[in-house]
Design brief:
A hairpin with a 5-residue loop joins strand 17 and strand 18. 33% of the residues lie in helices and 18% in strands. The longest helix has 20 residues. The chain has 3 domains: 127 residues, no CATH class; 190 residues, no CATH class; 124 residues, no CATH class. It has 603 residues and is of the alpha+beta class. It has 19 helices and 20 strands. The chain has a 9-stranded mixed β-sheet with strand order 5-4-2-1-6-3-7-8-9, with helices on both faces. It starts with 21 loop residues before the first strand and ends with a strand. InterPro entries: HET, HetReg/Transcr_Mod. It holds the Pfam family HET. It comes from Bionectria ochroleuca (Gliocladium roseum). This is Heterokaryon incompatibility domain-containing protein.
Length: 603
């Protein structure tokens, strides 16, 4: 469709959708020229009786909507990424019918957007095919040729071993798993409800499952060890594995499963969204709470509204402790007025002492408050959301170590990481030496205390009574194995005193080593802060804490919670929550006293 010069065409305005379970479908017209302006018609259909269509899964991108598409003779501006996706498919199919959120939903109407998002699971489930568009980067033609060859080899059951290799081609291939589509929160919903997901990259079409399987094998079979480490450290191998894991975890022979919302939130932790509220809305439709009235999408000026509703729902369902584990990181710039105890379910804003906040919660690893029952209650007072709990202030933080908040995700070699971890152990040892004696750990050596502190007592080898909680602790186990080898030898006290001069064997026999996961766990440890309480207990916190017996941060045991928390006193007698913590010697209920627990309010 070529638009000649003349008066500016009228702007397209969406006709309202009057009937429930109705959607708009876009019919895009064929064109001989790839660059021809997009022309289409847009019609409303009942979802249950709609004609055959495909649904598009793609990344909006940050670019402004500047590219015109002409719908029924009226102009609507869309983003470049969407324009290229439609033109690519038009070249292959000619005229076709498609559902695409940016066009088929009136983005200016929050009420319509809310109701249409409720239908998105069914929109993707009813589509003949889910078309996943990956934006092309430089060299995509070369990457596609290699990928096609590898996919064919994978189908035949034989993936070629790396034989000298072409590093230039390998770096082209990286562009595929680097695509931001693999990090989208909406990806989970859009691709898991469909049995037919196809990836369009440039002019080439790949099946989602075969592409992800092939990329996984390519990483482990067909690249050099140097390139493999590079991929691991950038997290690219984990992105591919996670897409496959999610689809496998959520699908059964009889169709998709519906997991609880909180399980999905943990599973998708770290996913990217344009709007904060979409961390919930992208998942609610495929959760077992999809029909719950208080959790329905409701777009508007207050994006925190859904987080408040999810928090209240968690308390109703007896999952109040989960909120505190996922509490926002107060060091981040959170929206003004946000309550410290209401999670926003964002990995960048959440810190836990246990690598992932789910460690030690659902798995029953710890019982710091004995087997007490939770007593959580929320209320709104003068615009502030207050959480009422029963708790016991156990101790104040007296001395702190370094909190390496400057550590980035990509910090170099594993050897460099191990060196930094070793420095943390030295620091923790010095904190122990600052105390007189070990009156709280009479049967443990310093080496034992330090080695258990290093992994927050979550471990899977014979030196510890704890057991692994998920496969994410694998590298924590490797790290812990190395630390114990260093500290629990025949001269462990001497080793600790001279720890900087000892080479740590970070990859002991019998353990597989995923470098990326190792680095992730190690960086987490480095960003944590070791501390000593006024009673002489040593612990580890997920972020910077403050010192002081009266107004300093407190280690608090809360009824119904499996691990301690660090609370910060406020001027009005209330507290804000910084997050959970590990405090050696009280993790199994040793300090809990039901009779000493009092009512506390968290803001």
């Amino acid at each position: 469709m070529n638009i000649s010069h003349g008066p500016a065409p009228p702007i397209y305005e969406h006709s309202p959708i009057q009937r429930q379970r109705s959607i708009r479908l876009l019919t895009l017209f064929a064109a001989d020229d790839f660059e021809a302006t997009l022309g289409a018609k847009l019609r409303i259909h009942r979802l249950d009786s709609a004609p055959e269509y495909i649904a598009l899964s793609y990344v909006w991108g940050k670019a402004e909507a500047t590219i015109p598409i002409y719908i029924d003779g009226h102009m609507l501006k869309i983003r470049k990424n969407l324009s290229v996706a439609l033109k690519r498919w038009r070249r292959r199919q000619g005229t076709f019918r498609i559902w695409v959120d940016a066009i088929c939903i009136n983005q200016e109407d929050n009420d319509e957007k809310s109701s249409q998002v409720q239908l998105m699971r069914f929109i993707y489930q009813s589509a003949r095919m889910v078309l996943i568009y990956l934006e092309e980067a430089d060299g995509w033609e070369e990457a596609n040729k290699v990928m096609q060859h590898l996919c064919e080899a994978k189908k035949d059951g034989i993936l070629p071993q790396y034989a000298g290799g072409d590093t230039h081609t390998d770096f082209r291939m990286i562009k595929i798993p680097e695509n931001s589509w693999f990090q989208r929160a909406w990806t989970l919903q859009e691709c898991y409800v469909s049995n037919n997901c196809q990836i369009l990259h440039g002019n080439t079409l790949f099946g989602l499952d075969i592409l992800c399987d092939t990329l996984s094998d390519w990483i482990y079979v067909s690249v050099t060890a140097e390139m493999r480490d590079f991929l691991h450290q950038r997290g690219l191998s984990s992105r591919i594995s996670l897409v496959n894991f999610k689809r496998t975890r959520l699908r059964q022979d009889q169709g998709p499963l519906a997991l609880p919302l909180f399980a999905l939130l943990i599973l998708s932790n770290g996913s990217q969204v344009t709007k904060a509220c979409d961390r919930i809305y992208a998942l609610i439709g495929i959760s077992s709470e999809a029909a719950h009235p208080s959790l329905q999408p409701k777009y508007g000026p207050n994006e925190d509204d859904i987080f408040i509703r999810v928090a209240e729902y968690a308390i109703e369902e007896g999952k109040g402790p989960l909120l505190l584990h996922w509490a926002p990181n107060l060091a981040k710039d959170l929206p003004k007025g946000s309550a410290s105890w209401i999670p926003r379910w964002n990995a960048d804003e959440t810190r836990s002492a246990f690598y992932t906040p789910s460690h030690g919660i659902d798995e029953g690893i710890f019982s710091a408050s004995g087997h007490s029952d939770p007593a959580f209650r929320s209320q709104e007072i003068q615009g502030s959301h207050i959480l009422s709990v029963r708790g016991l202030i156990f101790d104040s933080i007296e001395q702190v170590g370094t909190c390496r908040t400057d550590i980035k995700e990509q910090v170099g070699s594993v050897e460099e990481i191990v060196s930094l971890i070793t420095e943390c152990l030295v620091e923790a040892h010095k904190l122990l030496l600052s105390r007189d004696g070990y009156r709280h750990f009479p049967n443990e050596s310093r080496a034992s205390v330090l080695s258990r502190l290093a992994t927050c007592d979550i471990d899977g080898n014979d030196w510890n009574l704890r057991s692994p909680v998920h496969n994410q602790t694998a590298m924590a186990m490797v790290l812990d194995h190395s630390i114990k080898k260093l500290l629990n030898g025949p001269h462990s006290e001497a080793y600790v005193a001279n720890i900087k001069d000892i080479m740590v064997d970070w990859n002991p026999p019998g353990f597989g080593c995923d470098v990326y996961l190792f680095v992730a766990v190690a960086i987490f440890r480095l960003r944590s802060q070791r501390f000593i309480t006024s009673q002489g207990y040593i612990g580890q916190a997920p972020q910077s804490v403050e010192i002081g017996r009266s107004k300093g941060d407190k280690v608090v045991l809360i009824a119904g919670c499996s691990v301690p928390f660090i609370l910060r006193p406020q001027a009005d007698g209330r507290y804000s929550v910084l997050g959970d913590c590990y405090l050696h010697g009280i993790m199994d209920g040793e300090a809990w006293d039901e009779g000493q627990a009092v009512a506390m309010e968290i803001v």
